[in-house]
Amino acid sequence: MTIATSSRMTLEQYLSYDDGTDARYELVNGVLVEMGAENPINTTIASFLFSIFLGMGIPYYCLAIGHQLQVESAYASARQPDLIVHTESSEAAISTDKVLRLEQPNPQLVVEIVSNSVNDQKSRSRDYEEKVQEYAARGIAEYWIVDPDRALVRVCRLVDDVYTFEDFQAEQVIVSQAFPSLGLTAEQVLKAGR
């Protein structure tokens, strides 16, 4: 749903916008667009991955749910991934602002958990097409698309400014260049450790 405003918003206005609800928005060409409701499994998967990375020795302050990344595209001005694994540099940069700006260091990993990829074409296009272009253009080395409906984890690795894709399903162990000792299967991620 698009929210009507009297004028187009700047990125700074968007970052300080609060309508007093729990609604999540993205800024598209200066216009607020409400994001659909999250599937409950999405937050459970993000929390599970948070705990896994924490257990691998990633400092808690480098793990983020709710941080904003500035992107440059026709679709949005900023994105809010389901989970970000920051580098020390990207965490330091975002700790002084509400968004990780284009000119600031990139995080180590961005994870998006698709909400209803089977029936919601917008959700699927957003995570599988729009964000792939945006995160590659930004230079994020690794991007995961976790898709509970399609029962897969897609790992996107940046090679020569574009992502290459590798899909993992069922008992396949996820191969991550950012975290080579991860040792998680797709099923463990998709079932959030259950």
UniProtKB/TrEMBL annotation:
- GO molecular function list: endonuclease activity
User: Does this UniProt record's set of keywords contain Membrane?
Assistant: yes
Classification via Pfam families: Uma2
Q: Which UniProt keywords apply?
A: Endonuclease, Hydrolase, Membrane, Nuclease, Transmembrane, Transmembrane helix
InterPro entries named in the record: Nuclease_put_TT1808, Restrct_endonuc-II-like, Uma2
Q: Where do transmembrane segments lie in this chain?
A: 45-63
SUPFAM superfamilies, A to Z: Restriction endonuclease-like (SSF52980)
Q: Identify the domain of life.
A: Bacteria
* Tagged with keyword Ligase: no
> Domain Putative restriction endonuclease, which positions?
11-186
Instruction: Give the PANTHER family listed for this entry.
Output: SLL0198 PROTEIN-RELATED, SLL0888 PROTEIN
Record's protein name: Uma2 family endonuclease
